[in-house]
Amino acid sequence: MKRHRLIIASLILLLCMLQPASAERSVVRILHVNDFHGFAEPYKPFGSDELLGGVASLAAEVERLRAGQPTLLLAAGDMIQGNNWANLSLGASVIELMNAMRFDAMALGNHEFDFGSEVLKKRIARAVFPVLGANVEGLYSVAPYIIRELGGVRIAIIGVVTEDVPVSTHPRNVIGLKFNPVADVVRKQVDLLKGEADLIIVLSHIGHAADRDLAQSVPGLAVIIGGHSHTKLTGPVLINGAAIVQAWEHGKALGLLDLTIEDGRLIKAEGRLLDIRPTGATDRTAAAIVEKYRLQVDAVMDETIGEALVDLDGEHVRQQETNLGDLIA
Q1: pLDDT tens digits, residue range 137-183?
Q2: pTM recorded for the entire structure
Q3: 3-state class of 52 per DSSP?
Q4: Residues 6 or more apart from 239 whose CB is under 8 A from it?
Q5: Neighbour tally for 175: CB within 10 Å
Q6: Which of 98, 216, 101, 200 is nearest to 159 (CA)?
Q7: What letter does residue 23 receive in the DSSP assignment?
Q8: Which residues pair with 161 in a beta bridge?
Q9: 3-class secondary structure, 296
Q10: Which of 7, 40, 77, 85 could pair with 227 in a Cys bridge, judged by C-beta atoms 3.0 to 4.6 Å apart?
Q11: Are 222 and 200 in contact (CB under 8 A)?
């Protein structure tokens, strides 16, 4: 009888050993913005009567969504130039804001170069988060990638910017800099990072169509977080195993992407955009920064220098000759 019990116990132990170990599963949250262009205050876009955006509301939403969840907050470029709130401080206001919001990384956008490379170096030096540009040569304050560990998962983030920077900013702003082909650079970085990271993310400022081409031509990418084309993607687009996302523009939306990882492999990517409106909760720290720089802008912009006798067309300045363009010229 004892022998039978011993045999049964041994069989049970053997069966337990043969059962597969329970898979380790975790969820990593990515919050992302792109093409902010310094639009810190809510505004009414052309053709809309509704106030959209407002970075104090955006910051409050970020804090709500990152609470108790392993989270990365990422920016896909064109953050520091555009609206007067950013331009009058040459982008210093945006860097102060991003520091307060605790961004984890930012990719260079083409408009980051609009104040010149020397100003850009100063802005990067003030940032408490890494600024990424793997395909940029000659700007030694940027990194090609970073690796972060969240929930036991090693995540590599590669930053890239459009190769068209020399023609999308003034040529004097990029003297001594070289912008290498994005796909070639990403492919090399992926080869280097295969043994170092479980997931590889590209933080991209090349536009949605180019993001799709990148996913198709470079295998091994888990996620591409895009910018440059101001595309409003309401959910991830899956190309060649990569989840491609982009969060519109001007802080009018916050991108949310939840990655489910099992045994170091991405098994599910669920994402959406959250509309940002100047209603509900606001972040006090962000609101104070917005107000500080708003007062500085108003002190300059509220000065009357003349009166126009007709409406000036600022909406179509990129498409055609306008009276506003003629006045400025």
Answers
A1: 999 999 999 999 998 999 999 999 999 999 999 999 999 999 999 99
A2: 0.91
A3: strand
A4: 212, 215, 216
A5: 11
A6: 200
A7: P
A8: 205
A9: helix
A10: 77
A11: yes
